[in-house]
Amino acid sequence: TISTTFLQQFEVISDYFQPHGPIVFFQGTENADFVCAEKLAAPAWAKELGALLIVLEHRYFGISTPFGLNYSEASTWPVEMLKPLTLDNVLLDGVTVTDWAKRHYPGAQDSKVIYVSGSYGGTLSTLARVRYPVTFFGSVASSPLTTGLISDPNAPNVYAWGDWAHEVYNDYSFEASTKIKAAMSTLRAQISKGRNLNNIISSRTFNLCTIPKTQADADTVVYQLMAAYIQNLQDNQPAYGFPFQTLMNATLALPANASYLDVLNVTIQAFSPRSGLPCFDWDQHFAAGGPYQYLQCIYLPQVNGYTSNSSIWGLISPYLFLDPSKGDKSLLDPWCRQAFNISSVQGGSEYQKSLGLDQQTLQSTSRLILTGGLLDPVTAAGTPPWYPGQHSIEDSRVYLYSGGAHTTDVIAETPLDPDGVKEARMAILNTLKAWLLSTDV
Predict the structure, then answer these.
(1) Pair 212, 218: CB distance under 8 Å
(2) How far apart are the C-alpha atoms of 259 and 255, rounded to whole Å?
(3) Which InterPro entries match (predicted)?
(4) Is pTM beyond 0.90 here?
C-alpha cells in the first residue's frame, strides 16, 4: 500500500521571536538540497522584526517527496504520481505550516505572516498574497515570473529574456560584447558553409561533450552557448565568483588575434565548473524532466532565452525546437510531450489574468513588493514597474535594484555584495517595518 501522506522538511528559528511579533515564512523552491536559513537574508530581517522564521521545503523536492519516491535532479516519475503537485497544494503547504506554528509557539497565535521567496518561489509568493490574503499579511516576491508565463512563439515579449541579457552585456562592456557578437557570427558562418564540424567544435579549446552532426544540432549549440552566457549573468553572485564579470574581463583580456573559439570558450569555462561536468553538454535540451518541469508543463509555461537578430548572439528563434507537424503550439510542447506525453498549458496575458498575475490585479493587491535585479534577465519576464501614485504605504510596488543578479536580494549578505543589492535588502526590511506599523486601512 502506498501512503497518501508524506513528511515535509522545514526549519524554524525562534531565537528572535517576540510574542505577537510577525512570522517570516520562506518557501523553498525547486532545489535538491534544503535551503537552510543561514543562506538567506530572512534571519537578519527576523532579528530586526522580532519574528519567528520558518523555511519550508517544497513538496516533491529533497526529502519532501510523497509515495516513497526518491528525489534527484534527474527524477523521472509517472504522471499519476505527480498529480498532487499543484499550485494550490504548494500554497496550502505554506498555510498549513504557518497555522501549525501559530498553535505551537506561545505568543504567535495572532502573528502576521510575511511570505518570502524568489524566482519560481517569487511567483508563489505573489500568488500566496493574491489568493490567501487572510493567511498571508504581506509578500516579498523576488525575481518572480509573471509576464514571462507565455507559450506562443509569436508573443511580443518572447525575446524579452534574451534581449535583456544582450543589453546588460552591452552596458557592461561594448568592446567585449562586440567580440562575442563577432565570434558568434563567425561560428554561424562556419556552420552555414558546411565546414567540418569535427574540426570546428572538437578542438581542445572548444570542449563540447559530443559532436554536432546536423545543422539542427549546430543551431542547438548556438542556443546552448547563449543560454550559458545568460546563466553566467543570472548567477553573478559572490558564491559563484561573479561569473559574469569574470567572463567579461577574460574576454577583454584576450589578444587581438584570438580565435572566435577562444572567445566563445570563455563562457564555457565560467559555466562548466558549476555544471559539474568536464565538458559543455549542449545536447540535453529534451532530457526527461522531473517535478519542476511538470509544474512548467501544467501551470507555469516559462519562456527561455530567445533573442532577436540584433542581439550579440544573433537570432535565436523560438521556432528552433517546435515541430508544427506534430501539433506543437507551445514553446514547451516538445519538452512536455517527451517527458510526460502531455501538451503544455497555453500561457499568455489571459492565462496570467486567470492566475491573478496580471498587472491590474497586482496593483490592486496591498502589501506586495515585487523585486528584480537589473543584471537579471528574468526581470524582463517579471512585472513592469508602474507609477506608484501611493495613497498608502501598503500599496504594492515593483522595486528594481542595481548590481543584482537572480534573487540576490533574498540571499544572505556577504562583504562582496554590490551596494545596490545591500540597499535592496534594506528597502525590503523597511517596507516590512512600514507594513507592520501601518495604521492605514
Answers:
(1) yes
(2) 9
(3) AB_hydrolase_fold, Peptidase_S28, Ser_carbopepase_S28_SKS
(4) yes
